[in-house]
């Protein structure tokens, strides 16, 4: 019995048959034909980009399609919920089911030209690989700071590769696709499937302890500064009180000395008048005299 040649199926809807799939089961045990919702799959197959650019495409052609046509990440856009080229090519990867070597080749491409190829490969890994492989593959790219455009129903926004990776690890829905529930990293560490992750910043506990120690030291310095300021204010208040007391004692001693040297009886002593009062009185008397002379 002769073996049938490997030909590309002209009927793409065979992959969408819910009773089964011609593709093998994904490494995480899911059916790649049903990972995306039925409504999203139907929009992808009916889209113009899928019919024109995704027919007869292999793993190598995906690279050219991404470089030439993908300029943003996202699921569906606009009120008509039109699928983006990024989502169409992700569905094509579900159909092609590339192996780990091909995915590694996708991920190792750097530069601005292939950043959307890396994002597409990371998205596919999150959809099809088991939990431990997802963490091992995605976590190194949390250090990727390249910019990405994200297109959704509300329009286009700016994001980064590390933010996109964090969304894949944390959020339940990304790019109009419901992600299968990823176990916590602590659970996988307890099961021995993952090693404890070392942050590029260092030991998080030590960093938190250093921050708390620094905060306590700053509080102590602030309290010392406040105490010194209060002491200075108290000294300035005391000096002002002492100055007023000295002035008062000096004035009282001057008055007492003047009274002691004055030999006239008390009833003959006249109170001192201000020179300005004398000037005012003299001016008033002069004006009165002039008025009488007239």
TrEMBL record:
One CC-aspect GO term: spliceosomal complex
Role of this protein: Required for pre-mRNA splicing.
Subcellular localization, as worded in the UniProt entry: Nucleus
Query: Which classification does the entry list for the species?
Result: Eukaryota, Fungi, Dikarya, Ascomycota, Pezizomycotina
Q: Supply the alphabetized keyword list.
A: mRNA processing, mRNA splicing, Nucleus, Spliceosome
The Swiss-Prot or TrEMBL record describes its family as follows: Belongs to the PRP38 family.
Kindly give the Pfam families that the UniProt entry links to this protein: PRP38
Q: Is the keyword Nucleus assigned to this protein?
A: yes
> Is Lipoprotein given among the entry's keywords?
no
Q: Which domain of life is it from?
A: Eukaryota
Disordered: annotated span: 212-294
Question: Entry's InterPro entries?
Answer: PRP38
Q: Where is the composition biased (Basic and acidic residues)?
A: 227-245, 255-269
PANTHER family noted in UniProt: PRE-MRNA-SPLICING FACTOR 38A-RELATED (PTHR23142)
Protein name stated in the entry: Pre-mRNA-splicing factor 38
* Any one Gene Ontology BP term: mRNA splicing, via spliceosome
| Record's compositionally biased regions (Low complexity) | 283-294
């Amino acid at each position: 019995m002769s073996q049938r040649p490997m030909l590309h199926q002209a009927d793409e809807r065979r992959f969408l048959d819910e009773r089964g799939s011609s593709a093998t089961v994904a490494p995480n045990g899911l059916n790649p034909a049903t990972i995306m919702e039925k409504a999203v799959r139907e929009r992808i197959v009916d889209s113009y980009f899928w019919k024109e650019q995704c027919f007869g495409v292999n793993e190598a052609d995906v690279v050219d399609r991404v470089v030439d046509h993908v300029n943003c990440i996202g699921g569906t856009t606009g009120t008509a919920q039109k699928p983006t080229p990024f989502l169409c090519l992700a569905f094509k990867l579900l159909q092609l089911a590339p192996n780990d070597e091909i995915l590694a080749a996708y991920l190792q491409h750097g530069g601005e030209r292939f950043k959307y190829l890396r994002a597409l490969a990371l998205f596919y890994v999150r959809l099809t690989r088991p939990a431990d492989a997802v963490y091992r593959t995605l976590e190194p790219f949390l250090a990727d700071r390249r910019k990405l455009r994200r297109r959704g129903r509300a329009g286009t926004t700016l994001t980064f590769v590390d933010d996109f990776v964090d969304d894949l690890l944390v959020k339940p829905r990304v790019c109009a696709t419901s992600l299968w529930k990823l176990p916590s990293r602590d659970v996988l560490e307890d099961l021995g499937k993952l090693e404890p992750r070392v942050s590029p910043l260092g030991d998080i506990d030590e960093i938190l302890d250093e921050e708390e120690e620094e905060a306590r030291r700053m509080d102590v310095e602030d309290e010392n500064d406040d105490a010194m300021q209060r002491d200075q204010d108290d000294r300035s208040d005391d000096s002002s009180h002492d100055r007023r007391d000295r002035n008062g004692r000096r004035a009282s001693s001057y008055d007492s000395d003047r009274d002691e040297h004055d030999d006239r009886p008390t009833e003959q002593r006249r109170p001192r008048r201000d020179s300005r009062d004398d000037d005012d009185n003299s001016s008033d008397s002069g004006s009165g005299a002039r008025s009488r002379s007239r």
